Hints:
Blueprint (H helix, E strand, L loop, with lengths): L7 E3 L4 E4 L10 E4 L2 H10 L5 H22 L3 H12 L6 H10 L7 H34 L4 E5 L14 H10 L3 E7 L6 H12 L4 E4 L4 H6 L5 E4 L3 E3 L4 E4 L2 H11 L3 E4 L5 E2 L16 H4 E2 L2 E2 L12 E4 L6 E4 L2 E3 L15
Parallel strand pairs: 4-5, 4-7, 5-6, 7-10, 8-11, 10-15
Antiparallel strand pairs: 1-2, 2-3, 8-9, 9-14, 12-13, 15-16
Helix pairs in contact: 1-3, 2-3, 2-4, 2-5, 5-6
The structure holds 5-S-methyl-1-O-phosphono-5-thio-D-ribulose.
Amino acid sequence: MTSDVRTVEWTGDGLRLLDQTLLPGRVEYLVARDVDTLVDAIRRLVVRGAPALGVAGAFGVAIAVRQAAREGWDDAALDAAIARVREARPTAVNLSAGVERVLPFAAEGADAVAAEAQALLDEDVRGNRAIGALGADWILGRAGDRPLRVLTHCNAGALATAGWGTALGVVRELHARGRVELVYADETRPLLQGARLTAWELDRSGIPCVVQADGAAPSTILRGLADVAVIGADRVAANGDTANKIGSVGVALACAAAGVPFVVAAPWSTVDLAVPDGGGIPIEERAEEEILTWAGVKTVPDGVGGHNPAFDVTPAHLVTALVTETGVLEVSAGVTPRHADRPS
Ligand code: MRU
């Protein structure tokens, strides 16, 4: 596991973030002590992944409360700063949920907010362990005795959470049980979370993996080279429609065509029962430069624009199972979050 690096850590006066834009080449940290720095870090994906964004958002309120005291803000200025944290990225519901969770503590001061944010962080790690165990149980219950070839997309690992990971938590648990033959990590254009981050995590953990182009994933699945696909989620609607990194839908369609389970691993906090279906999930549109350039070099003719949605929505009927810390919902068989008990 990535036990020697901490994605998100409260220092007492700021939030220490492992700068994921620099991986795998450099392991460097950025400390956000003001709202501008944190919002910029979230937008640039210094910190990213739905659960990690939830934790960053919660600590972001502590940063705002400290800054308000330091700089003499009135209530309106503090509210506006907190809103900027909440809205820094739109798709992962965890970000706004993390902010909302700690808001009742704001009147007690930054330390009380930070204590609640720390509770969220600790819960996330515990939840990921449970997701890993439940997901591995479910997969192995259908897999027979053979070693498994697992396909994953983007990064839903320790780097995307407070620790251990959701989809990669399942992979880590399968590996601990001696059942992983190989992980196919989709490179995840345009920001390469799979190539840079998932491969880094798996390699450090001694889990065999290869990186493939996103366009290779459907073919890998149709050729029978993957036994299961496991991905994370940024928001799951009440009917089970699942928003995740752009390219997830292609993986799901290929899995459905090949009869391969498509498993979504996410904490219950990623489920948004207020959104009935995927049509209500806001999809982040990022700057076209991310598509029009490669390593800073323009790759597209002048005058041609880019289309850069950061997420897509996989329809519920393509989601074989949703693994949360409270259990497994067999979504394509009709068991959706809407029909599940909210955990206590
Ligand atoms: O744009 P990113 O890197 O924040 O996107 C992350 C993903 O899509 C993850 O798969 C998702 O947040 C789940 S993380 C456990």
